[in-house]
Design brief:
The complex is a heterodimer. Chain A is an all-beta fold. Chain A has 1 helix and 30 strands. The longest helix of chain A is centred in the middle third of the chain and has 4 residues. Helices cover 18% and strands 21% of the residues of chain B. In chain B, strand 3 and strand 4 form a beta hairpin. Classes of the chains: A mainly beta, B alpha+beta.
């Protein structure tokens, strides 16, 4: 099953017999920034972003057939985004399951920059104080939104108390003590939009990912290029393609088993945010970012205006799927060499996840 | 007793939602009473600090509430409160 969060609802897409596919909509008309399945118990979690009624959280225990609303987290009274600006939940931008040894643990990243934790299957949430109280926090700022937001949460598959988050705009932060304390991990990144591009805080990772088999290898699609780390985010180095398409973009996926492999979906840099020359491509590296292959078979190559948001590229094994702002969904079952169009004319797609 | 009515759009999330009579002296109290009658309803109207959500309006009789932050506007015994959604784009 694929779970698509879109501007107009959640769409669950399943194969049927005879090569067909069934599309099951939920929450029609309501923006769904993200939906995931908790691999531990099969629960599907959907974040909703009502235009009027605020951010909400829903869960399904029957494969997205029915959903029930659960309480969304709350910023404690008195907390401020910055001096004089009260902190309140603006949207849910990241959801991640805890480790197998932490039943009931869920992590949630939000705007305006708060990380929340649940230890009771989402029934209650608490603000992770160690990150919220980090001395740098009031200097974080928004990228595309008015406030900073947490879009990436990675739990080390070897150690569930070892967590990374990606924050726009602040950078990558790491905790080795289950979220009690946090430190920025942005050495080697470059924020071209800052007076000091090497600033430890203020970087703009669009998405971070790690290699499950070797979590010391991490990747990030950054606002200012593609970066890789081979030392667990202690340092980053740029791996974008000089003169080629693999540079700007939002999404990135790290191969689960091969630390030298990753995929990105490039866009024309910053100013236009459309496919380069109207040609939709995916880029794959098989050598740790030293070189990139441009994969275009099956993708529209003329007047394509599909932009792929950060959560809209999904990977399972070497099967990839991505959805675009123009409501198209593409699937490759061979690592990106060939793409089929699964659906067109969907609402603008915010997120794609295998479930 | 003041009466609270709701935009029909809220019945999508709270089936059976209709006019509620509340023994409330302020709009904030009325929202809490509505939440007690329909658990979760309050969080659709106000944020976690009790402030009216940006794209929601409350009218008391024909007047828009003045205090959107704490909803301290008083309610007369026969007041008619309406919870409506502000118009917004596609």
């Amino acid at each position: 099953m694929l779970l698509l969060g879109t501007r107009k609802g959640l769409f669950a897409i399943e194969r049927t017999g005879a090569g067909g596919r069934r599309i099951q909509p939920n929450f029609l008309g309501i923006p769904v920034p993200l939906a995931i399945r908790d691999p531990r118990d099969g629960t599907i979690w959907a974040a909703l972003e009502h235009g009027h009624w605020g951010p909400k959280l829903h869960k399904s225990t029957d494969d997205a057939v029915t959903f029930e609303e659960v309480g969304a987290p709350a910023y404690p009274e008195g907390e401020e985004v910055k001096d004089g600006v009260p902190a309140k939940l603006e949207n849910i931008w990241a959801l991640a399951a805890g480790g197998d040894d932490q039943p009931g643990r869920l992590w949630m990243g939000t705007n305006p920059g708060g990380l929340f934790r649940s230890d009771d299957h989402g029934q209650s949430w608490s603000l992770v104080r160690g990150l919220w109280d980090h001395p740098s926090r009031k200097g974080w700022f928004g990228g595309g939104r008015d406030t900073a937001g947490i879009h990436s949460i990675l739990v080390d598959p070897r150690d569930s108390t070892h967590i990374f988050v990606g924050i726009s705009c602040a950078g990558v932060f790491e905790s080795r003590d289950d979220g009690a304390t946090w430190a920025p991990r942005n050495k080697g990144l470059r924020a071209d939009f800052l007076p000091d591009p090497a600033s430890e805080v203020g970087q703009d990772p669009h998405l971070i990912d790690l290699c499950t088999a070797d979590p010391t290898v991490m990747w990030q699609q950054n606002h200012c290029g593609i970066f890789r780390s081979t030392d667990g985010a202690d340092s980053w180095y740029e791996v974008g393609e000089e003169g080629g398409p693999a540079n700007f973009g939002f999404a990135i996926a790290a191969h689960e088993m091969r630390p030298d492999w990753a995929w990105v979906v490039p866009a024309q840099s910053d100013d236009t945010r459309i496919p380069i020359a109207g040609s939709l491509v995916v880029c794959r590296t098989e050598d740790g970012g030293r070189s990139w292959q441009t994969l275009r078979r099956g993708l529209p190559q003329d007047h394509a205006y599909d932009l792929v948001y950060r959560h809209a590229l999904a990977l399972r094994g070497e099967t990839l799927a991505f959805g675009s702002t123009t409501g198209n969904l593409y699937l490759s079952q061979d690592g990106g060499d060939y793409w089929e169009t699964v659906a067109t004319n969907l609402p603008p797609i915010y997120s794609v996840r295998f479930a | 007793m003041p009466t609270v009515g709701f935009t029909a759009n809220l019945t999508r999330f709270f089936p059976g939602l209709g006019d509620l009579e509340v023994g409330s002296a302020t709009v904030a109290e009325a929202v809490r009473a509505c939440d007690a009658a329909h658990p979760g309803l309050g969080a659709y109207i106000v944020d976690e600090h009790g402030a009216l959500r940006k794209h929601v309006n409350i009218f008391v009789d024909d007047e828009m509430v003045v205090d959107r932050t704490t909803l301290s506007d008083p309610l007369a015994p026969g007041a008619r409160v309406m919870v409506i959604q502000a118009l917004s784009g596609g």
